[in-house]
UniProtKB/TrEMBL annotation:
It comes from Hymenobacter volaticus. Residues 1-16 form the signal peptide. It is an enzyme of class 5 (isomerase). Its EC number is 5.2.1.8. It comes from the Bacteria. This is peptidylprolyl isomerase. Keywords: Isomerase, Rotamase, Signal. Residues 515-632 form the PPIase cyclophilin-type domain. Gene3D superfamilies: Cyclophilin-like, Leucine-rich Repeat Variant.
Amino acid sequence: MLAALAACTTSSPKTAALTAQAAANPFDDATLRAITTAQDERNTAALLPYLANADVRYRRAAALALASVQDKAATASLQPLLADADPSVRRATAYALGQTGDSTAVAPLVARLTSSSSAPTDQRYLFEALGRCVTTTSLRQLVRGFSGTDTASVAGQAWALLRAGNRGVTSEAAVARAVALLDQQMPLAARQGAAFTLARTPRLDLTAYQTALTTATTDRDAVVRAAATTALGKVKSPTIASTLVGLARRDSDYRVRVSALRAMNATMYAPVKEAAWEAISDPSNQVALTAAEFFLNHASGEPGVLFLEKANKLNNWRVRATLLATALKLGGTERGAIRTAVQQRYAAATDPYEKAYLLKALGEDPAAYEFIEQATFASGQPLVVGSYGMEALVAMRRLPDFPEAQQAAFALTIRRAMGSGDVTIMSTAAEALRDPKLNLRQLLPDTTFIVAARDKLVLPRDLEAWLALQQTLDYLQNKPTTPAPVATAASHPINWAVVRSVPVQQQVLISTTKGEVLMQLHVADAPGSVASFVELVRQGFYNGKTFHRVVPNFVAQGGCPRGDGSGSTNYNLRSEFGDLRYGEGAVGLASAGKDTESCQWFITHTPTPHLDGRYTIFAQVVKGMDVVHRLDIGDKIVRVELVK
């Protein structure tokens, strides 16, 4: 699909337009609008009759709508459509059943998979749905009941194992089958699914499969290599260090090098540290940052001043700040001098994100408490500085050498944070209050100041902060968790006039300080999300915003009006889980849970299948992925515009 989309673009993003005529917008059809409105309203009863409609378009649309609603009450009505005469309806139905996660769907899915009339094109959908619905008991049917060697079967089984593994449903037999599917003779889809299964399934010990995983890191596909390298981090053997060093030094794809550095741990520090030092100078800033994070997480037995000296030679502020954090964490006799050097950098820095990261670094040293607190609550500063400062104070409180005599002062800081009115600072303070290890309940027994702070928040704009404070109140008062007050569709219905004004192949040009990115909107799959995005683009909302979050080999995220990830519009959207997957360059909406999307969006660096069906995909990058891979925190979104 990515190749097909890329082939549709012109050579220049500024003048890009599809060579083919834009297809008619499907929502010119009133019935499709009615089905999607029922989806948006989470109205299962209104959707079920469409499953029996004579028009294939409406049956398919209703099934896909139920994939977003995710109501198990629809399972019985969906099951007959697994044998629908139309393949698109069958696939939509399987996808919807998987999205419900209903274990009662296992039997009909297995029956369809083993039916002689089951079409090869349905296999992947049926298998993935099965993987989303199986239990520990029924997993045996998935592992042992399908031993075919055809492309559709092995690919489907691999991705089914991933979907089950993402939910923590696995077994020794499932792991062994995933390893077998890594074989170079298997089709690419099977190898990718198997590699992701081993990388993403939690709590695996893959020591027994070291040889197979090492072989997989030579796969011709970079996605397989990166996931297999991540899986190597679950091998408990000292001999794995040399393999990771080789990958970090020599793999041609930066995402594999990132995975290798992340797979390194404290037990192998000595044999891998030279490779990590080399990676600090990697042409990819994402690799360099990951190397710095390796030292922050695992360095030991070395003087902090060594990392200060290394940091002072670097130009990339984010890598430098991470090494400075390492220097303070290791400390030593020069800790005071290191702290002074970091504080001086903070005073001289002009980039708010660099200042924020320097506060984060100072959070490694309890002696910097007063400096960080003053910076956190200083008036007139960029919001991101206060956000990171509060996080640094809480991180410092969790340090084992945090002075006991300073705990009362920290409690006062928490009260001050709650009264600040800043949603991020308040949220961070609330999380600290409900951390049992910090034992703040005794120092702050009266919860009225939390209630007062919560009651000043505005919903749905401040939903994330409201949830943080309410969960803290529930914890301190020993009450059950309060359900999230998710906004209903009536509070912000889909703007159908905007939806119908967007061509099916509408493209958007994002001009950044690193270059231009061209993406194509998925109006047919996520009309409500696209309408909101288009309205914001037409208002110029995104112009001048930043990429506030960049996680190497994962995502670049922007669009936050605060610049720290806590900003929102004054409305929420409902999640739209169309039949789309998070491949490289997928554009999704950030959220604090289902049906809480707003204005923030992210672009994936690589396939991230654990996000599938959990975060709305509303667009796909069709040109400029090289720019996306170079984006870093603080890079500007200069302008976002619709391309005609």
